[in-house]
Prior knowledge:
binds 1-O-phosphono-alpha-D-glucopyranose, Spore Coat Polysaccharide Biosynthesis Protein SpsA, Chain A, single chain
Amino acid sequence: MITKCLFPAAGYGTRFLPATKAMPKEMLPILTKPLIQYGVEEAYDAGCCIMATITGRGKRAITDHFDKSYELEHQIQDTSKENLLKEIRDLIKNCTFTYTRQNEMKGLGDAIYKGKSLVGDQEPFAVILADDLCVNPDGDGVLTQMVKLYNKYKCSIVAIMEVPKDQVHKYGVIAGKEIEDGIFMINDMVEKPDNDKAPTNLAIIGRYILTPEIFEIIKQTKPGKNGEIQITDALLTQAKNGMVLGYKFKGKRFDCGSVEGYVEATNYFYNMHK
Ligand code: G1P
């Protein structure tokens, strides 16, 4: 059973300055809901009830968001606006939110390692990068799809998608043997390769299921791209010692870490909403 989901959320969000000067990028709204809430809802739909966030300085708004606001509750009680809080109230009621801080920016691998104290090292867990906003209007959410796959293969899984060849340098890229339609047994992984050096155009997007052995592997992983501890490098070690799958998910992903992707997501949700 996968019941815990990690949300690395310590990054600065420099691409959204000045908006993110005093506000975490994970709290940027798509319509009326902050990005991180979309991620938490996806994790909840996939069966998770422990939402563990790796935060940093200046991220208190996330903690407050997933807590009761008594003044607000009192203010809107029995008004038509009460309805607007329904989803967040349900999450607060049904999930436990835990937090720890990554006090130095040492990479996604290091952020995930910090999550060990929250998710423990006994069970597999999920990881969602909230700025990759994923939707699947035709069925299961992306994390639900991955949990189903985990139940079959019981190994670490990364979500992947094909990207144009001139975009691969923005992503972790995998290569592997396609063992089922859209499911790859990974034999190579590179973090943000040069476009002409990438093994494929299969890019990792921000959804992972990790088995707890990953913590020991991260501990042994040397700094890689940009001098940071990369989860991509740790996963390559895990793939070489056992098995890691790349899963071409069904649905759509918006890169809400970029202004362009953020606007695209906003338009998409607005049109859905209408
Ligand atoms: C991270 C990962 C990268 C992955 C990407 C997906 O990079 O390191 O492997 O492809 O998320 O969004 P970041 O975008 O945080 O630099």
